[in-house]
Amino acid sequence: MNRHAWFLKLGLTTNPTIVTRLINDYVYYPTPSLLSQAHQLFDEVPSKDTPLWNSLISAYTRFNHPHKALQLFSLMIHQHHPTSQPNHFVFATVARAIASYPEKLQLGLAIHAHVTKSGFIPNNVVLETALLHMYSKCCLVNRARKLFDEMPHRNWVAWNAMMACYVQNGMEFRGLELFYRMKCCELNMPNEFIVTTVLAGCVWAQDLIFGLQVHGYAIVSGFESNCVKLISNMYFHCGDVSSAERILNGVEGNATSKLIMIRGYAFNQRYQHVMNYVASENDIARLFEVDYTIILPLLTACAKLCLLKVGKQLHGLFITSSSFYHSCDTLEDGAIIGSALIDMYIKCGNFGEARKVFHTWLTAQHIFLWNSMISGYIYNNLIEDARILFEEMPEKNVVSWTSIISGYVQNGMPQEGLNLLVKMYSNEDRLRVEGNCLTIVVGLAACRDLTDLERGKQLHSKLIRTLTNADINNVAVGTALVDLYSKSGNLKYAQTAFDLMLEKNVAAWTSIITCYAVHGFGFRALEIFQQMMEMDVEPNEVTFVSVLNACSHCGLVGEGLQYFKLMREKYKLIPEEDHYTCLIDMLGRVGRLEDAWCLLEEIEDLEMSKGCSTGTVWTAMLGACKLHGNVELGRRVAKKMLESEKEDTTTYVTLSSVYAAAGMWNEAYGVRESWRKVDNVNRKPGLSRICTDLLVS
Question: Could you give the residue ranges of the DSSP H alpha helices within 32-181?
Fold first, then answer.
């Protein structure tokens, strides 16, 4: 550099002040060679002062070499020279280095104690904010908040650091509360950097209402133009696609806005919108050069829409647009993209191309690729092929085990799934893998399908021992426990598991409502449904099936019809076969057969939304005729079922029982004779299961 040559000519390159300035010039551009030259300059100074030490420590920290920065700090404190003692700037820089190197947290704690004892803090907002950032990156949120609360003075940077701490550590709502406190309680006006952090919190929390308020603040404060992409991203992640599109109007030519648009559509499962947007884009290869990971949502859209030809074009374009092996920053990035390609080819039905990607995508087959192939086989119900590939894996992680166990459970083989779960924990190959929450959920589902309460309890005990509070904090685990105990008939345990859950989503509420409904406690099920609505949890179609079922068993016809109306008018849910079946059963139980028949005719006219089966609806009507001995109506129903080819074993057996109950034995005999002559009737044998052996051999 010209300045360096000039100082060298003047003989000033051993002056610490001059060298500090030169180091700052060298590290302005982040290249390793310039950093190495800066370090050589530093070594040539015989008498180093504090600013000189800090300039190089800061340079290594900025270049993401925290270990080098900490080595320099160690050398500095062992100098014992009065002109090179660390000041608050040095300690702040070291704290930032430790934030990038959490393994050295103990050093950070020692520095915090030292600066407190030495009087650097409180009243030094730069150092306090650096320590706060260090605790944030080391996931010590409570320590960070304690330090924040003890700060006598806070600037924008400190407020932003604390909000970012919450957002980055999965406590978004606490970050949003802090923003509210800053603006509305302490009357500090956030700057655009704080708005950026809070928008990220709204994204992770998917809090549209708060996001709208932050957007409004950005408009009145003049920050909107600087935060357009973040605001649109917030709307996409909160499900308000139209607002996101409106925000991005006028910046469509920008590559970053295009990436946001594609990812936003994919996040909201608007895969056709993704394809339409890409089709209108003239230079898709340019987007790959800006951010090659954009291929992931594009491949997802192709997989969901079964667009094999488009997927192949994207595959080829990705390889040719820029050198693939130089595009991916890490081996893991390449494996993730390879997994997405395998998933796309398998879901489009092309196993040959999927296997080709599996064998040739990377020089060494990454575990991600193995897991994707196993998941693909399971997706296509090829469980034996998945098992063969699983046994060939050189290395298995928790995803591998969970996938294959889940495959067996999904394919009606829960016992084999449980046997694999036992093998995973048995350490047979000295490669013990600890299951995660999803593994436990799959295991509980297997126990549920086997009605194996004892082994379910054992799995619950292991969950409590190894995954602290997972049954309380993880809604999927809590719901699986409710489902297990419900299906096993232990309503007390099911209610306890439900009560212990800190967060309850619609699936959890539906599970406990179903628990009471199927066991004949209809009034209790309806009480819980009322609690659910009071908690502003929106029910779904499955919830209303359980509610209508509860009304049917309790004889609450008026209430059942009101809930059916509520489902259609308030929640805008389209009734399906199960809902109508519950209604017919409810009317039939109380003898309102004519009303049930009228409803049946209405359902037939609607054709259950374009060809949806109505077999169980007619079966429920036939059962009601049997219950009340209405032979004539039973005959009409059975005739209708036979004409529409909805017959099965139940049709013939139930109609025969209707005749027998009325003493019409000849007619009953005739129905059974007709049944024997029909070849295409599926005669399913009855099945019941009990658990007699609690040990796995």
Answer: 32-43, 50-62, 66-77, 88-99, 105-117, 125-137, 141-150, 156-168, 172-180
pLDDT > 90? residue 480: yes
Helices 577-589 and 541-554: crossing angle in degrees, nearest 10, is 10
**Domains in the chain: ranges and CATH:** 1-153 (1.25.40), 396-503 (1.25.40)
How far is the C-alpha of 240 from the C-alpha of 220, rounded, in Å? 21
**Is the pLDDT assigned to residue 612 strictly greater than 50?**
no
Q: Does residue 184 sit in helix, strand or coil?
A: helix
Q: What is the CA radius of gyration of the chain?
A: 33
Q: Write the CB contacts of 6 (distance below 8 Å, at least 6 apart in sequence).
A: none
Nearest CA among 395, 397, 376 for reference residue 386:
376
Share of the chain above pLDDT 70, in %: 82
Tokens, residue 131: 């320590």
Token pair of 165 as six digits: 């701490």
Higher pLDDT: 75 or 484? It is: 484
Contacts of 615 (CB under 8 A, 6+ apart): 641, 646, 648
Neighbours of 269 (CB within 10 A): 12
693: exposed, middle or buried (Cβ count in 10 Å: 0-12, 13-18, 19+) = exposed
For residues 436 and 608, what is the distance between their CA atoms, to the nearest angstrom? 41
Phi, psi of 692, rounded to the nearest 5 degrees: -115, -15
pTM (2 d.p.):
0.74
